[in-house]
Automatic annotation (TrEMBL):
One of its GO terms (molecular function) is transmembrane transporter activity. Coiled coil: none annotated. It comes from Mycetocola tolaasinivorans. Gene3D superfamilies: P-loop containing nucleotide triphosphate hydrolases (3.40.50.300). Residues 3-212 form the ABC transporter domain. Keywords: ATP-binding, Nucleotide-binding. SMART domains: AAA. This is ATP-binding cassette domain-containing protein. GO terms for cellular component: plasma membrane.
Amino acid sequence: MPVVATDISVAFGERRVLNGMSATFEEGTITALRAPSGFGKSTLLAIIAGHQKPDAGTVTITSADGGDDTPGISWIDQASPVFPHRTATDNVAMGALSRGATREESLTIAAHNLTRLGLDDVRDRAGKRLSGGERQRVAVARSMAAETPVILADEPTASLDAASRGLVIDALRAAADAGAIVIIATHDDTVAESADRIIRMDTLDTPSAPEATA
Ligand SMILES: Nc1ncnc2c1ncn2[C@@H]1O[C@H](COP(=O)(O)OP(=O)(O)OP(=O)(O)O)[C@@H](O)[C@H]1O
Ligand SMILES: [Mg+2]
């Protein structure tokens, strides 16, 4: 089932950030959110994640079986937090543990996802000793290990070179191919071009405007 955001408005004091925005995000697709810095991309992701309440509007996310349980959402944060005293492996394994994998399974899943993100060399390194770009890829790998139906990625390639960026794009594409709803806030043209759809938030000028460009 899609993620449906309807008539979302948010203001911080006098400052209106989202002005009646609506959008639908389909399973098996990657959507890139584009807009200038400060426009409200992270705010929209936080609202979809349920971390923040909009001043008006609704977000509906229905689980695939039609039940009331909200499906799992993973969040790849703009700041790429990792547990500083845990190894890269343990950080990624937590994603698998969160969906009920055993410790042993989670280590296998972590190894696979570290490899696909080019992190074999740092798998035993503590989170606090990872570079910014390594942390960013650990955050992506953890999200992949969690296999959630919804993946929200806030500038997941901001600290990465072209090669690492390609690995992140490939991982997000694989998740979408497996059925996930992937929503990426990005300033990166290469990431946006790899998406199935781009929403240019700054051109959604009317409340509840139909969605933007394909
Ligand atoms: N809790 C808050 N209180 C006040 N203002 C806030 C709060 N959170 C966000 N804002 C403001 O809302 C605006 C939108 O912020 P947001 O982080 O969503 O932008 P963004 O599009 O993700 O920008 P960037 O590309 O720089 O990440 C900004 O002007 C920001 O300063
Ligand atoms: Mg942001």
